Every structure is written in structure tokens, then in C-alpha cells.
Amino acid sequence: MAAIDIIRDRAGAEPVRLGLILGSGLGHLAEAVAGVAIDYADLPGFPGTGVSGHAPKLVIGMLEGQRVAVLGGRAHYYERGDAQVMRAPLETLGALGAEALLLTNAAGSLRPDIPPGDLMLIRDHINFSGRNPLIGEPTDARFVNMVDAYDPALRAALAQAAKAEEIALADGVYAWYSGPSFETPAEIRALRVLGADAVGMSTVPEVILARFLGLRVAAISTVTNMAAGMSDEAISHEHTKAMAPLGAAKLERILRAFLRALT
Ligand code: HPA
Q: For labelling alongside 166, which of 41, 46, 61, 213 has CA 20 to 30 A away?
């Protein structure tokens, strides 16, 4: 059976309004959703994810009166060198009827005024890895327009939700670095010159795929650290996982207010 049929079988066939991908250390958000959880292992095409801090489950259910599909774990390019690794989950979200996709991630900040614990709404991205998940795609549909890839109306609605909750939400450009090693201080200096405000190892390939699939996209970073060379604090995955919950609580409030405001 295809993933979509298994999901309809277990969680019902009603369409979902929004798809949500949770980043490192943000997995507890899935528990806020009252619904049915399905392990990725039960869904053909869904990736195994071996990254600690990610819960590889799809949860479908209600949050603030809206039916949502939450991808509790993402697979990353750096796990196997496959930029398309999230394609099946994203296609499934589209097949479930999701109009929009909200991506979250943990990121390093390049801006002293966006310290660890703060959130940043992604306005645009820099594909610093040079990899593209649409390489090999055979049709002209591969020439995806990336202007306003981060949907202006969704961004405005998220900014409004943050304002209503009195939570500071910075606005900036996210650079995708392939990982899994962290960046060097020289790379971070280069990225600052290039116009990046935050850096991370995910999200960009998913945004490209989602736009290809016709989903509207928004994304929020939780800043877990200052990027390499910008502070004395040692950068590590442990630190990322420990810091992510700081932003996660605020992210959940913004998400709830955003869903409540959806008509
Ligand atoms: N760099 C890349 N990815 C990250 C970082 C970082 O500093 N922090 C959290 N994810």
C-alpha cells in the first residue's frame, strides 16, 4: 500500500490544512497535536532518520481547530548525500491536501541582535551548498521560480501571530550549509558578506521541493547558537538540542496563534 493510503486508512481521509516539519529539538510540538501517530518505518518512501533530537513519526490530527500533519523528524542531505531525501513526505503532504507547509529548524545566528533562544522568520535563502533536489528531474517543471518562495502572505500572518503573542520574531535570510561538520569561522565571515542572517543544515532542499510540488511555504528558525567564530561558546549538536526547546515554546505559541487566525 502507498503511504497516502496507509495514512488515510489509519487517520481518516479528510484533507489537512497545514503540513509542519519539526527541526532538531522541536519534536515535542508533535505531542501537542491530538491525533494519530504513524512511524515513518510504516510509510513506504519515508526516510529513516538517524539524527538524535528528531522523532521519525507523522502525526495527523487537530491543533487549534485545524487539521494538520506534523512530520516529527526530517532526514538531512548530510545523512546520505541525497538532496531529495524528503521528497516522499512532501509529496504525501501535498496528496493529503495541505495548502501550506511550515518548516522549522535549529540554526546558528550570524547577527548579534538575534541571540540564541530567539526566532527568525525566513524571508529568503542562500543555497550555499550548491546542491539541488531537482537535479535529474526530467520535465520543464524543474525550472522553479524561487522569487517569494517564502510566501509573503504566510510570512505576514506569522509575523502578526508573533506580534499578538508579544514574541520577538526577527526576519532574515537563511543559508544552507550541507554539514554535517559545522562551518568554519571563515565560512561564517563569508556568509555574512553574502547577506545571510542564519545558517543551518536543512530546510532549503525541502523548500525547493515544496515549491516544485506547488505548496506554499513558510519557515522559522530557532537560533540555538551564535555561528562559528562569533562567540566563545563551543558549538555542538548536544548544545543545539539543549538550546532548541528555548525557542520551541515560543514557536508553539506563534503556531497556535497562526492556526487560530486561519479562516
Ligand atoms: N550551523 C549549522 N547548523 C546549525 C547551527 C550552526 O551553527 N546551529 C544549529 N544548527
A: 61
CA 43 / ligand 1 centre spacing (Å): 29
Q: 210: which 3 cell numbers? A: 515544496
The tens digit of pLDDT for each residue in 223-236 reads 999 999 999 888 88
Cα dist. 93→39, 46, 137, 184, 225 in Å?
15, 12, 20, 35, 31
Residue nearest to atom 2 of ligand 1 (CA): 200
Domain boundaries, the chain: 3-261
Q: Please give the positions annotated as active site.
A: 24, 54, 76, 78-79, 106, 201-202, 225, 237
User: What is d(CA 203, CA 205) in angstroms, rounded to the nearest whole number?
Assistant: 6
CATH placement of domain 3-261: 3.40.50.1580
Partners of 105 in beta bridges: 221
* Helices and strands (H, E) in the chain, number of each type: 7, 9
Q: Are 209 and 92 in contact (CB under 8 A)?
A: no
d(CA 244, CA 112): 18
CA distance 145 to 154: 18
